[in-house]
Amino acid sequence: MSDTPLKLGWEEWLSLPDLGLPAIRAKVDTGAKTSALHAHAVEPFGSISKPQIRFTLRPNPDDPDLEVVCAAPIVDRREVTSSNGETELRYVISTNVQFGDQKWPIQVTLTNRETMAYRMLFGRTSITEDMAVLPAESFIQPKLSYDLYKGFPRKKAAKRPLRIALLTREPNNYSCQRLKEAAEQRGHHIEMIDTRRCYMAINAQQPEVHYDGKPLPQYDAVIPRIGASMTFYGMAVLRQFEMMGAYCLNSAQSIGVSRDKLYAHQLLARHRIGMPATAFASSPKDTKDLISLAGNGAVVVKLLESTQGKGVVLAETKKAAESLIDAFRGLEANFLVQEFVKEAGGADVRCFVVGNKVVGAIKRQGAEGEFRSNLHRGGSASVIKLSVEEKKVAIKASKVMGLSVAGVDILQSSTGPKILEVNSSPGLEGIENTTKKDVASMMIEHIELHAPVVNTAIRTRSAKPS
Ligand SMILES: Nc1ncnc2c1ncn2[C@@H]1O[C@H](COP(=O)(O)OP(=O)(O)OP(=O)(O)O)[C@@H](O)[C@H]1O
Ligand SMILES: [Mg+2]
Ligand SMILES: [Mg+2]
């Protein structure tokens, strides 16, 4: 390296020549130990003595059709705790990094950074002693651009038939049947896999999922339809499919985040997404203070375990709220106390998000005298045209959770849209029958666009450990 120290700002362009990546915009973060690179469809291959990893990367966050398939030797697998506190077992690769004409080897962990602004985090172990980081500056090194990817093959909707697994415990319900129909209509092969009947060896060198006495084949894509009661086990099964390199329509991680209602609310708040003023508690001593955190008027108290509106109660006065919470206190159940958004008029809006788009929206109106709009409680649905702001909020909420497919429920309040919840396995029946849109096909199309084109040579090799 040269005599003058290499200077880096807090954000820089770099290239990773060994991976065939001419331009990556990275955040230099001395708070992070190891560098991390965005990767999906991560799939190990090669021999046990010389293990390699293949993954797909979308270098430009604004251009999802630009995909580069990379391969590198695996140097380690390591537990990494990210800034949001999640611990993840990641593959570590070794590769050269290049800034201007200076090049040196670094270690990089692979993780899904789809929802992050930067495709790469440049950590402190990648920065050598003769370099300086100037946190107040950016782009000290030569600026590159995504134009360098001109001429790279663009992704086209897959013409090839895909092998898809639909993970569900209810293969006969409307949503699963429609997904099956849509996949088959588009020429794909789809299998219904009962989540609960999957089993697996965790430490296998070659990750597998077993079913009825045999290992399941390698799928191009997995559609998780995991019910609330199966969240924990379903996520484990899905993670296994992820490790096998299948494209999962929603990742296990994103399902976990959206299912944890407290975490989901905290995450939405952190990203400044509008929601009703919300407080949560388990067994509070100071009921009055808890109620005041949720505003000054009527409140809605929700048991966290509730679904289909069952554990959701309206307290129209402070007194009513107090006695309600006092009753909950003995149950040691976690619950939310929320400002009651009266002007929503017993209605909410379900926005069905696929990728970066709201593909359909319906307004659900509660039965006469009912503030809960759940269709299971006798609510009725109608088509609604969303405002630009509502669309934006729905897409942002799905992004924040990391979901590609989501049912985002919004209350229309006098101060703009307020998010109620984000569902990771939204049902198709209400939305399709009301809007007359073929949402199932849109989900399959999303898979066609995002499931990486598999190099069959690599896949055949990885199927048999050598
Ligand atoms: N803060 C609120 N203000 C006004 N109405 C609300 C509020 N919270 C909930 N509601 C109404 O009650 C219904 C049920 O509430 P929510 O969706 O939070 O619980 P849930 O339906 O039991 O949960 P899940 O959808 O996971 O089954 C909502 O669809 C909405 O119509
Ligand atoms: Mg609901
Ligand atoms: Mg829900």
- The CATH class of the largest domain is Mainly Beta
Percent helix, as a range, is: 10-25%
DSSP strand tally: 27
Shape: globular
Could you name the ranges where pLDDT drops below 50 across 5 or more consecutive residues?
455-466
Named once each, the bound ligands are:
adenosine-5'-triphosphate, magnesium ion
Largest sheet: 9 strands, mixed
What is the name of the CATH superfamily of the largest domain? Acid Proteases
Strand arrangement, largest sheet?
Answer: 2-3-10-4-9-8-7-6-5
The averaged pLDDT comes out at 89
> Kindly, what is the distance between the CA atoms of the first and last residues, rounded to a whole number of angstroms?
40 Å
| Rg on CA atoms, Å | 24 Å
Features:
single chain, about 475 residues, alpha+beta, Cathepsin D, subunit A, domain 1, Rossmann fold, D-amino Acid Aminotransferase, Chain A, domain 1, 10 helices, about 20% helix, globular, disordered C terminus, binds adenosine-5'-triphosphate, binds magnesium ion, magnesium, metal-binding, ATP-binding
Question: What does this 3D model show about the protein?
Answer:
The chain is an alpha+beta fold and 466 residues long. The chain folds into three domains: 7-154, Cathepsin D, subunit A, domain 1 (Beta Barrel); 163-249, Rossmann fold (3-Layer(aba) Sandwich), CATH 3.40.50; 344-440, ATP-grasp fold, B domain (D-amino Acid Aminotransferase, Chain A, domain 1). The chain is 22% helix and 34% strand. The chain has ten helices and 27 strands. It has helices at residues 174-185, 231-243, 252-259, 261-270, 287-293, 318-329, 388-401, 429-435, 439-450, 456-463, and strands at residues 6-8, 11-16, 21-28, 35-38, 40-46, 51-57, 68-81, 87-99, 102-111, 120-122, 131-133, 163-168, 189-194, 198-199, 210-211, 214-215, 221-224, 247-248, 278-281, 299-303, 312-315, 335-339, 347-354, 357-365, 380-383, 405-413, 416-423. The strands form six sheets. A nine-stranded mixed β-sheet has the order 2-3-10-4-9-8-7-6-5. Helix 1 (174-185) links the parallel strand 12 (163-168) and strand 13 (189-194). The chain is globular, with a radius of gyration of 24 Å. The structure holds adenosine-5'-triphosphate and magnesium ion (MG) (2 copies). Adenosine-5'-triphosphate binds at residues 276, 300, 302, 306-310, 312, 338-341, 344, 348, 366, 371-374, 409, 411, 420-421.
